[in-house]
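Researcher: Sequence recovery benchmark, item below. Answer with residues only.
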């Protein structure tokens, strides 16, 4: 029988998080089926689910496929109208699911949406990973309503409205299964980081909408797998972001944007080395650029297909601004300030 909503928690050695947060997901997600997809965990995650939550169907994967391909593998085995990708370190709230379902049901042109993401450690503030919906600047730097770089805002209701965004956070992402399949899902080659931004941008190029539904609220631990300062995370973020740009940029911007990003990436690497004295982060950026140049031609067919499916020449949520300049030179630290120009 086809589910209306399949909540799918992709787990890798996260039994402690599931012990803490799975009970609220079960309690407050009436009408949805909660699946656990396990990425070959070496802790007792699978035994824990089997013994404590036998009502949650298990999808056990034979190896750690990463976030992107792990979800692709798991969702291929699940039949539902809506998939809801949910991190294991999310605390949901009573009534969180209904606004998302109602919004998607009422707006067939919307492919994906997210709830408002709040910090579990400072419950009055947005959470870094997705806040109140995500955007990109012209050079591919992601930011959110409620979070720009390391500046995270207090929630004072300033973004309490449904808004079209470029990307919805993979920490709590509802997507129509038909759109997920039509766009080709997450790019499994990314392994982790930027994969949901890439998929949502492709959906927007195809003319589908992505939104943040702020009547739904969840709380996120964040950084559950890798800390913010981690060379592997830096490597994946830079490599995958460049790859996403190569795939999705319109033809008339590709060369100029990639030239500028080359300059900006080397400036960032030197800053990590000289100012922060972080050799690991410096090497991660250099390796990311090297590996991007090695594999970028593997994505030529993807780029060709994306451009052929293009409905939107201009995606307005990819904002025509230079975020680094606005943030560090003009001192615009919030989304509201960016909008003022």
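Model:
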């Amino acid at each position: 029988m086809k589910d209306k909503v399949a909540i799918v928690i992709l787990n890798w050695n996260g039994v402690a998080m599931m012990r803490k947060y799975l009970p609220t997901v079960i309690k407050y997600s009436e009408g949805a089926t909660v699946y656990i997809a396990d990425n070959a965990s070496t802790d007792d995650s699978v035994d824990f689910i089997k013994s404590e939550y036998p009502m949650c169907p298990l999808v056990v994967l034979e190896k750690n496929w990463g976030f992107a391909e792990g979800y692709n593998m798991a969702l291929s085995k699940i039949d539902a109208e809506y998939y809801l990708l949910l991190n294991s370190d999310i605390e949901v709230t009573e009534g969180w699911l209904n606004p998302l379902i109602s919004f998607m049901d009422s707006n067939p042109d919307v492919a994906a949406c997210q709830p408002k993401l709040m910090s579990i450690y400072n419950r009055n503030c947005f959470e870094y990973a997705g806040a109140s919906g995500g955007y990109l600047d012209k050079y591919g730097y992601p930011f959110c309503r409620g979070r720009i770089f390391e500046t995270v805002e207090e929630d004072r209701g300033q973004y309490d409205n449904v808004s079209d965004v470029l990307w919805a956070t993979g920490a709590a992402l509802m997507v129509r299964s038909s759109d997920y399949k039509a766009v080709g899902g997450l790019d499994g080659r990314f392994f982790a980081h930027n994969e949901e931004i890439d998929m949502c941008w492709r959906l927007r190029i195809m003319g589908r909408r992505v939104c943040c539904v702020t009547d739904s609220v969840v709380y996120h631990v964040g950084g559950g797998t890798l800390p913010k300062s981690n060379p592997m995370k830096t490597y994946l973020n830079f490599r995958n972001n460049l790859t996403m740009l190569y795939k999705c940029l319109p033809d008339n911007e590709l060369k100029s944007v990639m030239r500028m990003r080359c300059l900006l990436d080397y400036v960032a690497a030197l800053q990590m080395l000289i100012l922060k004295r972080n050799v690991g982060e410096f090497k991660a950026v250099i390796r990311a650029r090297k590996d991007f140049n090695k594999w970028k031609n593997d994505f030529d067919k993807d780029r060709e297909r994306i451009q052929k499916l293009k409905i939107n020449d201009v995606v307005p949520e990819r904002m025509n601004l230079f975020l680094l300049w606005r943030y560090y030179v003009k001192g615009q630290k919030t989304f509201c300030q960016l909008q003022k120009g």
